[in-house]
Structure formats: structure tokens, C-alpha cells
């Protein structure tokens, strides 16, 4: 029995109880193994439970030709515990030999608690009050970095991020008297710069298949509409930015799915405290349904995902990126009806919301051969290493063809612009010419699997640029210190070999 069931659902296990339980499962099964993947800000260990019928995977962790690797992350938010409980339950069932078909087609990496500090301190964030969920560009929190390392280490084809959403909202509930009436919502990587074939597969097949599978099992599932905080607001989808794991992983060429299940209202009366048994049941159904779909369709899922990692293909012409992405009014479906429940009476009614789920992909920029970095180079080198992005540090001056980016104006982003965390919109023009880079300057070649992701974070014109993050306020009018260059063919062919850091002699 999982610790939660053993406690008769009356108290949540802490991170040590959960670790202890998973270690015990692993000790008694040759298909399970616990791997230490890092330590939280508060000094708590973070583990992944590997589940596989393949001894080679248990030893080397590497992707296998006949099996999709799936990374499941639960409880990045400490106050959303049901996902971690569902992972423990599934792990137990698998060690007992249930769901036999799954381990024939899948190698599982289960991180039951991505944020053990949050679990033990009953809070959303880690012990340093960092929100790892929006940290995937800056990589400030140790937990985010260890999850990025985990992506690199296991190279999953499918990434699943499990959350719960509270339905009690200050304006919608307290002032207007309504609660949203959703059970389980799913979103997938939706940034328009994700590999085009991967997007087609995920949005066109996997998401609708998952929604119908869970609905058929009796739990109403829908596509995620973002947070509903008041009547009369616009609704869109999950955010388009790459600061979250869903889009970050998808930009790396992985099929990526988010679940948000209902975190019931404190004031309701339920069979178990805060309805935890029912919440775990929904999370378990969502997770199991996804894994069953992934196992059944593993061949196609692997092909699409591995192809995206080997050779990114943009949705637009050539290899181009949309720098300014946001949501806009969907003119084909201008309104959307969502079910709400009146807090006082339990009356259920549909309400109309303005539908803002059309994705606008603005200015297209051709992916250059490389980006040059000429400011705070040591700090930037550390940041690139954290992302596992390959780069070269020049030892001697080098002449390159450059496309300098000249920032002409900065506009504070209106709060109304949904879907992006962009704080400043950059107005810029480019100026092509020869330029001499100096010793210590950094070249980041785009001819690498993480090239498109790197460009979205490095290019100041991007809505997802690093410089939108606190601590990286580089944006100001004038020539920008990071810009596209063409260093000539020989220059970046050397970057393919060994580690993350390659120093090129002139
Ligand atoms: Zn969450």
C-alpha cells in the first residue's frame, strides 16, 4: 500500500516517507531502480524511479530503438500533491505486474516529487521560494537545473508534467460567486516554433486521443483554457512561453503534455480530507491513459520525437523562427462556453467567454549559422552549460560576417497580452557587415539539436529572450551585444564532438 492509503487518506506522507516507499518497491523488483538526480534548495534528495523490463536501460539510461522513454514529473508545485500520489500508485501496480503492456513498449523515468521542499513545507515553491515552473529560461533554481540535467541524461521521447489547479478564485468565487467546473485538463507544447511534425502529431493526434480516452473512462477531460479568474475575461490556452517545462521540453524535440486536474475547494465536504482520494484517482487515470496511448502508439511517437531532436523543422519556410508569438481573438470561434457552478446553490451553468486561443506567430527570422556573445561572457558560458547548449570561446580575434541588432525602442508590454511573459517588446533593425570578434567572445552554433531553443533565448527580438528575465536586464536602445553571425564553415564543424564546452583555436 502507498503511504497515503496506509494512513487511510488522513495525512499526506512527507518526502522521506515517499522516498522510503519507492526505495522499498525498487528493492523488491528487478524492474525498478531508484536513481539520485539531485538535491533541493532545502537539502532534500530528489530521486527518479526507473521502471523498465530492459536491463540495458537500467544500467545506461539511454534511449532504446524499440522503446519510448517517458519522463513523468509530478509535484513541481508542493501544494499540488495528487500527482505524486498517483505516481506512487502506478509504480506499485507496475511492480505487481499490472499494466503488463506498458513496460513492453516504454522505459519509464518517474520523478514523483520534483519539489520535495514544497511537499514538506506545504508550500508551492521550494525552500528558497523559487517557482521552478517558470524558471526554464533563467535556470535560477537548483531544482530546475537538475530537471534540465534529467532531460539531458535520459533523453525522453515523451515528457509529462503533472499539476493540480485550485478552483477557488478571489474575484470569480468570492466576488462573483462562481467556481469553474472542470475535472481534468490537458495541454501540450504549443509554442509555434516547436518542430512542425512534432506539433502536428501532438496537437492533431495525441491531445484529442487523450481527452477522449479519459472522458470515456468517466472523468470529464478538456483542453486547458488557462486560469479562469473572473467572468468577462478572455480565455486562451496554456502559455506559449518556453519558461515552462512543457514548451521547453517540446522545443528540445520531445512530445510534451501537461495535466491540470481539479484541486477541490477547501470548504466542500468530501469522503476524504480535501477530496484527496478522488483527486489521486483522477491523476492516476490521466497518467495511465497517457502511458497506454504512448505504448500503443510508441513506434510513431518515437519516430516523430527522435526525428525532431535530430533535425528540427520549422513550421514556416526554411529554418525560421517566429520571434513575437502571442494569442489573439479566434475569429472562426469568437466565443467559447465554459461550465461554471454557483458556490451558494451548486447550480451549474454555461458562461460565454471571449475566445483568445488563436496563436499569432509574428516576425520570422531565419536561423543564422551562429550567435555571437560579446558581453558578460563567463556568466553566459555558465548559463549555456546549464542548458547543455554547445558553444566555442574564441582564443584570438576573428573576422565574421555579422548581422548586428540595433534596438531602436522598447515598449513595456501591455498586461493584456496573453500567453507570453514578455515584459518589453523590442523594436529593432538589423545591419549586416564585417565585424571583428575578440578573444573570449563566444560563438553558439545553431547547427546543433538545441540550436532553435538557444536562438529563442539568445535573440533580443524574441518574446522568450533571456533578457526578459529578472537579473538579465540588458535591453536598452543601441547595438545589442548578442547577434547572428556567419563565422564560415570550418569554424563550427569542430563543435560537434565531446562535451558542452569546446574551445576553438583561430
Ligand atoms: Zn502547478
TrEMBL record:
GO terms for molecular function: carboxypeptidase activity. Its cofactor is Zn(2+). It comes from the Bacteria. The active site is at 260 (proton donor/acceptor). Residues 8-294 form the Peptidase M14 domain. Gene3D superfamilies: Zn peptidases (3.40.630.10). PROSITE patterns: PEPTIDASE_M14 (PS52035). The keyword Hydrolase applies. Keywords: Carboxypeptidase, Hydrolase, Metalloprotease, Protease, Zinc. PANTHER family: PROTEASE FAMILY M14 CARBOXYPEPTIDASE A,B, SLL0236 PROTEIN. Belongs to the peptidase M14 family. This is M14 family zinc carboxypeptidase. It comes from Oceanimonas smirnovii. The lineage of its organism: Bacteria, Pseudomonadati, Pseudomonadota, Gammaproteobacteria, Aeromonadales.
Amino acid at each position: 500500500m502507498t503511504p497515503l492509503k496506509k494512513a487511510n487518506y488522513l495525512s499526506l506522507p512527507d518526502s522521506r516517507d515517499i522516498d522510503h516507499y519507492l526505495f522499498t518497491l525498487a528493492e523488491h523488483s528487478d524492474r525498478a531502480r531508484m536513481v539520485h538526480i539531485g538535491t533541493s534548495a532545502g537539502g532534500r534528495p530528489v530521486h527518479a524511479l526507473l521502471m523498465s523490463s530492459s536491463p540495458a536501460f537500467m544500467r545506461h539510461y539511454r534511449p532504446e530503438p524499440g522503446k519510448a522513454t517517458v519522463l513523468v514529473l509530478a509535484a513541481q508545485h508542493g501544494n499540488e500533491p495528487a500527482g505524486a500520489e498517483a505516481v506512487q500508485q502506478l509504480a506499485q501496480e507496475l511492480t505487481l505486474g499490472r499494466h503488463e503492456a506498458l513496460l513492453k513498449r516504454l522505459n519509464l523515468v518517474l520523478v514523483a516529487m520534483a519539489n520535495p521542499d514544497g511537499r514538506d513545507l506545504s508550500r508551492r515553491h521550494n525552500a528558497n521560494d523559487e517557482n521552478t515552473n517558470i524558471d526554464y529560461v533563467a535556470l535560477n533554481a537548483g531544482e530546475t537545473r537538475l530537471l534540465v540535467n534529467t532531460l539531458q541524461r535520459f533523453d525522453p521521447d515523451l515528457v509529462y508534467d503533472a499539476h493540480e489547479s485550485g478552483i477557488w478564485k478571489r474575484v470569480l468565487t468570492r466576488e462573483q460567486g462562481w467556481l469553474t467546473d472542470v475535472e481534468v485538463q490537458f495541454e501540450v507544447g504549443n509554442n509555434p516554433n516547436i518542430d512542425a511534425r512534432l506539433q502536428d502529431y501532438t496537437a492533431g493526434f495525441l491531445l484529442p486521443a487523450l481527452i477522449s480516452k479519459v472522458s470515456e473512462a468517466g472523468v470529464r477531460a478538456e483542453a486547458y483554457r488557462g486560469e479562469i479568474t473572473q467572468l468577462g475575461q478572455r480565455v486562451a490556452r496554456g502559455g506559449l512561453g518556453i519558461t515552462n517545462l512543457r514548451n521547453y521540453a517540446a522545443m528540445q524535440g520531445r512530445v510534451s503534455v501537461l495535466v491540470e486536474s481539479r484541486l477541490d475547494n477547501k470548504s466542500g465536504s468530501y469522503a476524504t480530507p480535501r477530496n484527496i482520494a478522488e483527486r489521486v484517482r483522477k491523476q492516476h487515470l490521466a497518467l495511465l491513459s497517457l502511458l497506454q496511448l504512448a505504448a500503443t502508439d510508441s513506434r510513431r511517437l518515437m519516430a516523430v520525437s527522435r526525428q525532431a531532436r535530430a533535425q528540427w523543422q520549422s513550421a514556416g519556410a526554411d529554418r525560421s523562427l517566429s520571434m513575437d508569438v502571442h494569442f489573439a481573438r479566434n475569429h472562426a470561434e469568437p466565443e467559447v462556453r465554459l461550465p461554471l457552478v454557483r458556490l451558494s446553490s451548486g447550480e451549474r451553468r454555461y458562461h460565454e467567454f471571449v475566445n483568445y486561443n488563436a496563436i499569432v506567430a509574428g516576425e520570422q527570422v531565419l536561423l543564422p549559422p551562429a550567435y555571437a556573445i560579446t558581453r558578460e561572457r563567463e556568466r553566459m558560458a555558465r548559463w549555456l552549460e546549464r542548458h547543455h547548449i554547445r558553444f566555442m570561446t574564441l582564443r584570438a580575434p576573428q573576422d565574421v560576417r555579422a548581422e548586428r541588432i540595433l534596438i531602436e525602442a522598447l515598449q513595456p508590454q501591455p498586461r493584456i497580452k496573453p500567453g507570453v511573459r514578455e515584459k518589453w517588446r523590442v523594436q529593432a533593425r538589423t545591419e549586416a557587415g564585417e565585424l571583428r570578434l575578440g578573444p573570449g567572445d563566444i560563438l553558439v552554433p545553431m547547427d546543433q539539436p538545441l540550436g532553435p531553443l538557444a536562438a529563442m533565448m539568445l535573440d533580443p527580438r524574441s518574446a522568450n529572450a533571456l533578457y526578459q528575465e529578472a537579473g538579465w536586464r540588458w535591453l536598452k536602445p543601441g547595438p545589442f551585444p548578442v547577434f547572428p553571425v556567419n563565422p564560415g564553415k570550418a569554424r563550427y564543424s569542430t563543435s560537434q564532438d565531446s562535451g558542452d564546452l569546446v574551445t576553438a583555436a583561430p
